[in-house]
Amino acid sequence: MLPDLPVLIVGAGPSGLMLALELCRHGRTPRLVDARPGPSPLSRAVVVHARTLELLDRHGLADAFVERGQLVRGGAMRRNGQVVATVPLGRIGEGLSPFPFLLILSQDQTEGLLREALASYGVAVEWNRPLVGLVQDATGVTATLQAEGAEATQVRVAYLAGCDGASSAVRKALQIGFPGGTYEQMFYVADTMAEGLPPDAHNGRQLQISLAPRTFSAFFPMPGGRTRIIGLLPDGLDPETATFADVQPALEAAERIRVQEVSWFSTYRVHHRVADHFRQGRAFLVGDAGHIHSPAGGQGMNTGLGDAVNLGWKLAAALRPAAPAEALLATYEAERLPFARQLVATTDRAFTGATRASSWASFVRTQLAPRLLPLALRLPLFRRHLFRTLSQIAIAYPHSPLSQGRTATTAGGQRLPWAAGRYELLHPPGWHLVHVGPVPPAVAAWAGRWSLPVSAVAAAGEAPGTVCLVRPDGYLGLVAAEFAETYFAAYARQWLGH
Ligand SMILES: Cc1cc2nc3c(=O)[nH]c(=O)nc-3n(C[C@H](O)[C@H](O)[C@H](O)COP(=O)(O)OP(=O)(O)OC[C@H]3O[C@@H](n4cnc5c(N)ncnc54)[C@H](O)[C@@H]3O)c2cc1C
After folding, report:
1. Is the C-beta atom of 106 inside 6 A of ligand 1?
2. CATH architecture of the domain with range 180-272
3. From ligand 1's centre to the CA of 300, what distance in Å?
4. What's the pLDDT tens digit per position in 431-449?
5. For the chain, where do the domains classified as CATH 3.40.30.120 start and end?
């Protein structure tokens, strides 16, 4: 017998909120608890990437994100307080995604929009409910929640998701290792109103990076004319006690700017770690609980949201009596752990290159990069590659047991390639059958027997007749050059489980 409650989500940051939304979308109401007394006001993650917007669009949320956020139109490199090179970035992913840009929106706003969407399903975060322990057996998980000074309560659930951030109590309770390391440098982050940045920084919505031999700073255009500044904390400052006033004089002099107002200042160290496992029995790790890395490329929150979408439909499916629960749930770690490892390795290379103090690294940063990057970004191939990598639209699961079949242009495990009008078809939850060109009667009849929505789509590089079973998270499960009933029925029996 399954416990009455399906899923307990521990942690109501972006990952936990998104997982809750995914479960609601698939008809399961989770319980969502957080140790904090209320929502965090901190702006932390500011970059929302295209794949995240595509995933949010399935919830009808992407437009609200774009309306509240700021689109980045370009990038600029600065040296000695002057812009030395600019690169156009607006619509850099044209033709690759319905959201071919970089969006800036602060994390507190992202979380607010996700909480509002959850409220429409009648789900609210239970604040001040920290998880302090858990045990699991063959049929469920018993979690202990206990706020300071309050009595402990126990909750019995079928599954538990640890979305409780880098210091995850769930990960520790499961005794899952979190190997990796910590970079030496200390960073600071400040949300400011700053004067003196070239007008382009805001009117042109430029993301500016300042290159110096021994340090660097980055300036992000935030909504409302604000500027997020990230920089290296100068040696000799105590990160525990440093304030913006300690970095302000040197920053203002080097960058020829004047900072009027600071709404948030914090210092932080950057870690690079990936958990040994993302799953143990009925408990899962999602988001920062499973992986943390340098902020290079703004990938952290976006990856947590991607984890949540990957796990949400699988958990919802696993709760159905006839579901292939074990096989489906195993694919969460199989798909997301390799990506997390690869991400940590690439952000590590980018971060080490950007911050290394050697004279060669400094020469590359201050002399070569401003000359070569603008040239490279004029090459369509390089622009496409950069967008595909940063925006996370290139994430694919070719080695997942869920990924089967290939044609000359498409393979199981890839994201459904975008073309105008395609993604709207995926708005209803569940699996979909997609046929390139008019749907033959035999395909429609088979889809009807499996209660699968079936859509005819125009080719976007694929040959007519190509047919794909698209997963609830928009990735291709089964791909074939033409429909063969026995092949599709075998896959459906294995993975759709009814
Ligand atoms: C300065 C800065 C800039 C960043 N910029 C970017 C960016 O541009 N793009 C990007 O993608 N990422 C960025 N990140 C990273 C991003 O903020 C994190 O990856 C993101 O917050 C992870 O979300 P999460 O939901 O997994 O964890 P968190 O946001 O850490 O949320 C965890 C939640 O769990 C709760 N919790 C903790 N312990 C317990 C417990 N025992 N019981 C119950 N609840 C608990 C916490 O209160 C919290 O609400 C940045 C981070 C920083 C610090």
Report:
1. no
2. 2-Layer Sandwich (3.30)
3. 8
4. 999 999 999 999 999 999 9
5. 423-495
Q: Is 290 in the pocket of ligand 1 (CB under 6 A)?
A: no
**Given a cut of 80, is residue 147 above it in pLDDT?**
yes
If 0-12 CB within 10 Å is exposed, 13-18 middle and 19+ buried, where does residue 20 land?
A: buried
Who wins on pLDDT, 51 or 185?
Answer: 51
Closest CA to 293 of 397, 181, 191, 217: 181
pLDDT in tens, 391-409: 999 999 999 999 999 999 9
For 5-69+105-178+275-352, the fitting CATH number among 3.50.50.60, 3.30.428.10, 1.10.150.120, 3.30.450.20 is: 3.50.50.60
Mean pLDDT of 43-50: 95
Ligand 1 neighbourhood includes 13 CB (under 6 angstroms): yes
Element containing residue 180 per DSSP (H, E): strand 180-195
- Tell me the two tokens of residue 198: 């070239």
Best residue among 171, 288, 294 to mutate for probing ligand 1's pocket (most ligand atoms within 8 Å of CB) is 288
Looking at ligand 1, which atom is closest to the CA of residue 47?
Answer: 8
Tell me how far the alpha carbon of residue 114 lies from the centroid of ligand 1, in angstroms.
Answer: 14
Q: What's 423-495's CATH class? A: alpha beta
Yes or no: say if 470 and 477 are a contact pair by the CB < 8 Å rule: yes
Confidence of residue 296 (pLDDT cuts 50, 70, 90): confident
Q: Does residue 135 register a pLDDT over 70?
A: yes
In order, the DSSP letters of 197-236 are: S-THHHHTTEEEEEE-SS-EEEEEEPGGG-EEEEEEPPTT
Long-range contacts of 215-220, Cβ-Cβ distance < 8 Å, separation of 24 or more: 216/354, 216/355, 216/365, 217/251, 217/254, 217/255, 219/194, 220/46, 220/47, 220/104
Predicted confidence band at 2 (pLDDT cuts at 50, 70, 90)? low
Answer whether residue 139 shows pLDDT above 60. yes
Instruction: Determine the pLDDT at residue 403.
Output: 98
Pinpoint the residues of the chain covered by CATH 3.50.50.60: 5-69+105-178+275-352
Indicate if the pLDDT at residue 68 is higher than 60.
Answer: yes
What number does the ligand 1 atom closest to the CA of 46 have?
Answer: 8
pLDDT computed for residue 437 by the predictor: 96
Residue 111 Cβ inside 6 Å of ligand 1? The answer reads no
pLDDT greater than 80 at residue 108: yes
Residue 287 CB–ligand 1 contact under 6 Å: yes
Ligand 1, atom 27, residue with closest C-alpha: 165
